[in-house]
Amino acid sequence: MSIDEPKNIDEALSASTEFDTVERWRRSKIDRRHSLIDDILAVVRSHGHDPGLDVIVSEMGVSKSLLRRNFVDSSDLAETALARYVSVEIEPRIRSALSSQKTDHPVIRAVTGAYVEVFTHDRPAYLFVTTHSAASGSKLIADTDYRIARLITAALGTSLGAQKMSTAGTAPIAFAILGTVRLCVHWWATQELVTADELVACVATMLEGGIRGITADEICGMTADEIC
Description:
The model is unreliable at 215-224 (pLDDT under 50). This protein has helices at residues 9-47, 53-60, 64-70, 74-99, 104-121, 123-136, 140-162, 170-191, 196-212. 76% of the residues lie in helices and 0% in strands. The longest helix is centred in the first third of the chain and has 39 residues, at 9-47. By secondary structure, it is mostly helical. It folds into two domains: 1-70, no CATH class; 74-226, Tetracycline Repressor, domain 2. It has nine helices and no strands.
């Protein structure tokens, strides 16, 4: 008998019960943190992207100590807010926008349009999570880019493959698309010197021209499955 194996059925049941209890507690903690983040974002949407902690806790009807019990510090709160926002607001929009695209041109416009849509319809929350997560210097920002870049890489691979074009280099192209779109939307968030439609058209046209000018021999051949 292995030293790690339970000696009898009672020990096995006890170990299973302990695991279930720990797992339920972990799930409950995650759900509680997500619920608090959703409430914080609701306050942000009503009071602007930087309402301050006093306004947040007052509007939520909770104490600062409650937030401290659920988040280690401001960086932890910012990271959780970004992760929650990406999974609930940004990723679903990008997945939906990419799902029906068959060529690389609509793929680029879909990604650009999805980011612009998030900002135009949810400006305070978008600015809150991007500003605070950037200030925290979170590794989560890079992890988030990888998650979204994988979606773009897969979509590009499908669209280029359907056109009998080389899919080599779709990963670096995906990161170039994501970085360009995100930075342009951040610029547009503070300037808005053009309309949303003009921004999408300008960025998409530039990126489409860049992809057309690239050959498989000139770029790295990473695919979606090779992105760590």
